[in-house]
Design goal:
The complex is a heterodimer.
Chain A: H1 2-17, H2 19-55, E1 61-66, E2 68-71, E3 74-77, H3 84-93, E4 97-112, E5 115-124, H4 128-131, E6 136-139, H5 144-148, E7 153-156, H6 158-165, E8 174-177, E9 180-188, E10 204-207, H7 208-215, E11 224-229, H8 235-249, E12 260-264, H9 265-308, H10 310-318, H11 323-360, H12 368-394, H13 398-403
Helix pairs in contact in A: 1-11, 2-9, 2-11, 2-12, 3-8, 9-11, 9-12, 11-12
Chain B: E1 5-18, E2 21-29, E3 32-34, E4 38-43, H1 49-56, E5 64-69, E6 72-73, H2 79-89, E7 90-93, H3 105-114, H4 124-134, H5 150-162, E8 168-172, H6 180-195, E9 200-203, H7 207-210, E10 215-220, E11 223-229, H8 236-246
Parallel strand pairs in B: 4-9, 4-10, 7-8, 8-9
Antiparallel strand pairs in B: 1-2, 1-3, 1-5, 5-6, 10-11
Helix pairs in contact in B: 3-4, 3-5, 4-5, 6-8
The chains are: A alpha+beta, B alpha/beta.
Amino acid sequence: MRQFFKTFKVAFQAINKNRSRSLLTVLGIIIGVAAVIMTISAGEGATLEVQKQISGLGTNLLMIYTKTEHRAGAHVRMGKPINKKDFDLLQNNAVWISKLSPLIVEVAQAIGPNGYKSIAIYGVNDQYFDILSRDLSTGDFFKDEDVKTAGKVCVIGKTLKDELFSDLDPNGRQIRIDKIPFTVVGLLKEEGKGAMGQDQDDIILAPYTTIQNRLHGHRSGYDIIMASAINEDHIVDAEIEATELMRESHKILEGEEDDFEITTQIELQEITGNVTGILTILLGAVASISLIVGGIGIMNIMLVSVTERTREIGTRLAIGARESDILTQFLIEAIVLSLSGGVLGVALGVVGNLLIYKFTNFFIPTAPYSIVIGFGFAALVGIAFGYFPAKKAAKLNPIDALRYE
Amino acid sequence: MTSKKVIETINLCRIFKNGDIEVHAVSNVNITIKEGEFVAIMGASGSGKSTLLNILGCLDKPTSGDYFLDEIHVNKLNKNELADIRNQKIGFIFQNYNLLSRTSAIENVELPLIYSKSGKFSNPKELAKKALEQVGLKDRIYHKTNQLSGGEQQRVAIARALVNDPALILSDEATGNLDSKTSIDVADLFVKLNNEGKTILMITHEPDIAQFAKRIIYLRDGAVLTDELIKNRSTKESALKELALTT
């Protein structure tokens, strides 16, 4: 152990003698480690952000829709459309599902007092707000009664309100959608960008019955049935139950495939988690390359150092250093170089994350494991790229080394 | 005299092969050096001085013959054991000092103790200081090597050779890079150390420096030509007088 400390001292002396060169060598590692930490953290930050937004969709969400397939570049519906029969069967029999709403999407022209816009109109029932946990900033949701009577009422989002009403209070005023006047009853609280980047406030919600009967003549099917499980723990039960009921409703025989699909919130999270996870790995891998380049820099300098110090190595061997002493000395030098680069790189990475937050408001929490990876990789690089020059130094013949000019 | 044999070689040979040609750099050398001796080895270049020194310094192994250093049969040792022998039994002094640059005198002198595996040197700093005092560099202990003159640097190297209390001090052209007066100082230092009981073997091609030793061995073509005691040893005073006459 004492021997080890002595060797450490010798290595430090050597590094200290060539301070500016050591610093320049270390720069490659500093940048590499900082890059690894910042890219991994950025990937993690993006994942967190997306996950947060998905859970913002409503915690126990299930979506039931007709199976589609890609055929010649277009989505082709493969099964029976989802309709009222399916909805009623679910509503009357499902025990693990607490709320249900149809969802019909129509694109139409909306005209307000101060502007107009072509926009997607969501036909839903009054439970939809609960399922997606949307709150109001002013006014009220439409009621069950409005759904039953196909009332010409709607709830709108902030973005649309700004375009159609400017600064006017929209509540009680009218929007004309395909020439039919709808009375605005409520303004949704701002939600911001959704998980896929869509603006969740650029929206009109109206009773689905109104959309079905008044907007486009008669339309019987739904695009999606939105549902929420009674709680998070029973989301899987709810999915199994909904699958059984849907198969019954669509008269699918045993052994036949479902002609519909059910996506749950958990699956959504898994999918996006996978995508961002792959992205993080990819970014980290690219950053690691810069670490390897830094390692080659260390090897380069160590080889120069060995050549430059051939006489010194000869002297050390002559006065009684063993090969292993020389090997460890140069290996420790390389490791000390790369580790100090690692320490500085970690600092730079953490500071870099904070700076990004300061200037772009995109919060990147420094992932602890990225520090471990960055630092560990730096140490590994030091050992891997330091070994060859150290071995070369240790294998020098003392007689030749002593006379080296 | 019944003192210990520090060096004993028996039919020592070192043959280099260069393609089909065999070069006998050292052939059948039999030398015995006892404790407390001060021996100079001389010879023209190519006479095998350096090869012999490498073997005696345990940096190289003989092709045949036996070498005993401080009564240890060196032929049989492996690389690590040779390193330890160099560390414990030998103090090297080189023509170009071979000090660590930009490093203090004391750190240079400490170096052999740092590599010591015996654990018998508990206080390397103290020992290094003492060695530096011995060579007259008491007030240069913390000077960096590049702040010292050639003569002072060689003294640091001598202190480094002394610090581990070796059985043998091996000097390879120690005065080769020094001016005449400084050379005399260094030779005088050898005499002083020899008087204190150190066994010294020095290789030199300067006859006036060799005259400081007690015994002189001439090599020619790898073999011992003459081996005799010196009757009129030089002293610092006589050498300086000579120097004044010739310049």
